[in-house]
Amino acid sequence: MKAFALLFVCTLELLFSCQGPPDNRGIMQSDDPIDSSAHDHTVRPQNNFFLYVNGGWLKNAVIPASQSSWGSFSTLQDSSVARLHRILDSVVDIPGLAKGSIGQQIADLYHSGMDSAAIEGKGFSPVKPELERIGKIKNKEQLMSEVAAEYQVNHNPFLSFQVSADDKNSRMNIVHLDQGGLGLPGRDYYFRDDTATLKIRNGYKAYISKIFTLTGIPAPDAEKKADAILELETHLAKVSKNPVELRDPLKNYNKRSVASLNKTLPGFERFLNQLGVVSDTVLMGQPLFYQGLYSTIQKTDLQTLKDYLSFHVLNDDANYLSQDFVNARFDFNKLLTGQSTMKERWKRMTALVDQELGEALGQFYVQKYFPPEAKTRINELVENIISTFGERLQQNDWMSDSTREKALIKLHAIVKKVGYPDKWKDYSTINILRNDIVSNIKAIANFNYKRAINKIGNPVDRSEWSMTPPTINAYYEPTANNINFPAGILQPPFYFVNGDDAVNYGAIGMVIGHEITHGFDDQGRQYDADGDMKEWWTVEDAQRFKQRARKIINQYNGYIAIDTLHLNGELTEGENIADNGGLAIAYAAFKKTTQGKRNEKINGLTPDQRFFMAAAQLWKIKIRPERLRMLTLTDPHSSPMWRVNGPVSNMPAFYQAFNVGPTDSMYLPDSLRVKIW
Question: What does the pLDDT look like over 224-268, one tens digit per residue?
């Protein structure tokens, strides 16, 4: 399923005049959601709003050794994990829980991950049957049969396989086949020759070798296998699209008949049958990749292909094997993230239960931590922001009446999903054992696989969620035209039960506006009110949209993420449009509230200043250089500073709130300011 998720950064100015301390007149609020202790008063908000709001905290904050970043999301995530851990602790030792009950399943999955003695004693024996089966493969037909089998137990060699909505017939499910098979974070990691990337690539090769030596293979042989696997993956990378190319939904929509594919890719239909797929057609995202994959498999010697499968089995399951495998994988991860120590086992296993049985654990979570009134209030905010977006569409000066009418239909057709699913996923048929984590992971994977296979050719269940209730995130789903806000994000610093409107509209209001705007960004705008990828824009309006989007691309291309590495404005285009639109819409909605219509200060800050500061402090995040570099190359979201400074620099209200003038660094002339929504 395609979805555009959140993940949050920028610069502010003196919430007062360009000189002098804050004006402390007005209402005094002792528990102010605006964290003044995080401010850096050596920085003028007019020059760098992000650093003004968050710079004091950034100077003093120390990223925990077990983290690759730290800040608003991390602290909230830690709090969420602690809550989930308390739930698991409360059920893990309850005797006599009924087999198949959600209590038994989450308790035993957690226990199986916490039983380090049992895990250590097994070494890598839980995956030996798979490795032995791979070792006995005699030809490439058997190889592809094994590849199909691996997809049913939590492995994804060579390609990406999923079942989700047909983009052009979004009420029905279809098989999606996309590029995949790479062990490094993205295709460019196989080709970039800068020092940082070379270090990662060499580290990856060393990791592959280490994994093999842990199974008893002599080091020289393991090194040769690593070289061959890296070469194989490099061939796959060469025929893979880059992240920017993958962002075009139309170019990555290629419906093909199975019969025709079987002619160009002999054995393809047999492979699909082995996967359990019964369908005349599939969606092949990147046909050239599959041609390249077929050619690579034909040209590569059988032993290398078997070694590739074996490595990815070991890599995928490494975190559930003995500590030497866990350490090997973590050591490689250090190169990617800069994280120096591993998280405590209880944190890793708590997160695992949320990941694998999230709607079972989520039922306990929402019962304990998500009151009904929170859902009611968020629904009200969503309605207010949708209404405001509609008003802005009515006032839009570059869109024709024809396109505007269809845009309004789409906007008001958006389905809002808040907190948790109306219908919980039933896991009762999964056999969760108390002392066998690998068996549990494979059982859950097989359960999910069978559910997916059974969806092929059947109607989409739009009530399903793609995130678990405790998740600190939000997303828009274009093929369902819905916005989703899990219970986990509906707490400080995103939402304050007793916070003033300025703070809540600047924080969770911006998030809501962000997700709504995804329906009208460069990707989302290609889907209609029903979720079908269909052209509903006039040619002229589409061109005018692209002209404005190009200005956003150019703006963000100019921002430096780290050292000399710039943001990729094309990769981050959609998220930047959503950040800019979300903030602008949330502000317009806020101005309709009683507080927004007045100018009464709280703790020396005007309502507008509080709005912008609340938005900026969401991105109070400190990131290790290694992690920031990787995100810049692969993540469609801009880095924190520019998620703040980029949008506010396009908003006249920000200039007025902080007295930004032509000589200030935050200033953009009117001709360069971007307004789409």
Answer: 999 999 999 999 999 999 999 999 999 999 999 999 999 999 999
Q: How many residues does the chain have?
A: 677
Q: What is the token pair recorded at 235? A: 């061939």
Instruction: Give the residue from 516, 413, 525, 405 showing the smallest Cα distance to 462.
Output: 413
Determine whether 107 is exposed, middle or buried from the number of CB atoms within 10 Å of its CB (0-12, 13-18, 19+).
buried
Q: State how far Cα 344 lies from the chain centre.
A: 23
Residue-wise pLDDT tens digits, 539-581: 999 999 999 999 999 999 999 999 999 999 999 999 999 999 9
In the chain, the percentage of residues whose pLDDT exceeds 90 is: 92
- 419: amino acid identity, one letter: G
Task: Determine the Cα angle at 412 with ends 411 and 414, to 5°.
Answer: 70
Q: Which of 612, 556, 559 is closest to 584 using CA atoms?
A: 612
Structure token digits, residue 409: 């239909």
For 609, the token pair is 């200043």
DSSP state of 266: T
CA trace torsion 486, 487, 492, 493 (10° rounding): 0
Domains and CATH numbers, the chain: 4-80+358-425+464-672 (3.40.390.10), 141-320 (1.10.1380.10)
Mean pLDDT of 333-343: 95
pLDDT at res. 27:
52
> Considering only CA atoms, which of 675, 648, 649, 645 is closest in space to residue 662?
649
| pLDDT tens digits for range 457-490 | 999 999 999 999 999 999 999 999 999 999 999 8
Structure tokens at 264: 């160009």
Q: Is 47 helix (H, G, I), strand (E, B) or coil?
A: coil
Buried b or exposed e, range 639-664, using 16+ CB within 10 angstroms = bbbbbbbbbbbbbebbbebbbbeeeb
